[in-house]
Amino acid sequence: MTDSWLALEPGADPAERTRTLRRAHETFTAAGTVSRPVRAVVAESWRRSVRAGVGPDGTASVELMDGDLGAYRAEHPLARVMPLVRELMGAFAADGEHLLAVCDAHGRLLWVEGHPATRRRADGMNFVPGARWAESAVGTNAPGTAMAVGRPVQVFTAEHFIRRVQPWTCAAAPVHDPRTGRVLGAVDITGGDGLAHPHSLGFVQAVARAAESQLALLAPETPGGEGAELAALGRDEALLTADGRKVRLSRRHSEIVVLLAQHPEGLTGDELLCGLYEDETVPPVTLRAELARLRGIVGPARLASRPYRLTMPVESDVTVVERRLRAGAVTGAAAAYAGPLLPGSQAPAVVRLRRRLSDGLRAALIARRDPDLLADWAHAPWGEDDLDVWRALTAVRPTATTRSRLAALESELAGPDAR
């Protein structure tokens, strides 16, 4: 084969290849061995599927429905490029009796559109909005595997790990945030054998690149058009962006702006003193001096007094996480959570807010029981010793690694006397 990323080489018989792949799939599920002509990318994906605990007779689970799905989609970055995706893929999907699909970074389908009859058939395998098609959930499939390997992928008929998906062929490509490089999700085209053509792989890759280009052109959205953005999660010095200018705030100014952003109605001097200082003997003049310096940084017109308040709307990463949690968009909340709020701060109000945000997200993750989300938290610096999350992760993904780490944490908690 000239290109191992293509499902069929020129001149190959699709029907014969499907029969050969089905035999190879049965051999693998029975004995764990992979025979030709299974491509390396597929063989590796099958092995990952088994390690993740996926069975060949499984099915996708629907995890977001109705209002939760709508709230999550509305705030997802890819919502801004969906008109472009529909323009580029919609007619192709409808005319060819295919489906276009867009998923998030965890493989959760956000949009599934296309030919009505094909959509009805796809409903039978839960290829529907809100269903999770990560490779770790349903095995080898184009959107899930594309994100697992970080590049466009074709999956042809019996290359799919789950049997009920094997009548289908699909091609998908990941979409990245043009500023950070972070994977936002993937675009996918799903349908019949004809999609094994090389053009379909190039097509989804071109759509993904067009979406990334469109995202790069779109200015960040801010409330009211004249607002600011505040990044305070996972960093001791917050980053304030306003008027196209980024300012790294001092630790004390970071605390002040975080608290004022949480209270757009304003705070009195006494309220700010109590929220910022553990020492009750700190005089008000100390706070007034800090506020005067902050006013010189953000501009005199943007920091008012009596009460102290920001006169510009501020969208902070803290409020994004809180808003998504309230909407039940747990995946979106986890994606926006870059770490504990101002982790080095000892300001009483910041400590309370940091704990409330972390505890709320942890509880949502544990309740959701999504192995990918739990694993992301458990392997992050702030979650590597989180016993409750490791217990939840081990319950849904009982691998040797998770069981070993959980046993080590429980042993540490029990202390030397219990050993």
Please, could you describe this protein's structure?
By secondary structure, the protein is of the alpha+beta class. The chain has three domains: 14-217, GAF domain (Beta-Lactamase); 223-316, Orthogonal Bundle (Arc Repressor Mutant, subunit A), CATH 1.10.10.10; 322-418, no CATH class. Helices cover 48% and strands 12% of the residues. It contains 17 helices and eleven strands. The protein has helices at 14-31, 40-51, 66-75, 82-95, 116-123, 135-138, 142-149, 198-217, 251-262, 269-276, 284-298, 317-326, 330-336, 348-368, 371-378, 387-396, 400-414, and strands at 99-104, 109-114, 153-156, 169-176, 183-191, 228-231, 239-242, 245-248, 303-304, 309-310, 314-316. The chain has a five-stranded antiparallel sheet, with helices on both faces. A four-stranded mixed sheet has the order 8-7-6-11. A hairpin with a 4-residue loop joins strand 9 and strand 10 (309-310). The longest helix has 21 residues, at 348-368. The protein is elongated and about 85 Å long. It holds the Pfam family GAF. It comes from Streptomyces parvulus. This is GAF domain-containing protein. Residues 102-214 form the GAF domain.
**Poorly predicted sequence stretches spanning 5 or more consecutive residues:** 221-225
First-last Cα distance: 57 Å
What value does the average pLDDT take?
89
Based on the coordinates given, report the CATH architecture of the largest domain.
2-Layer Sandwich
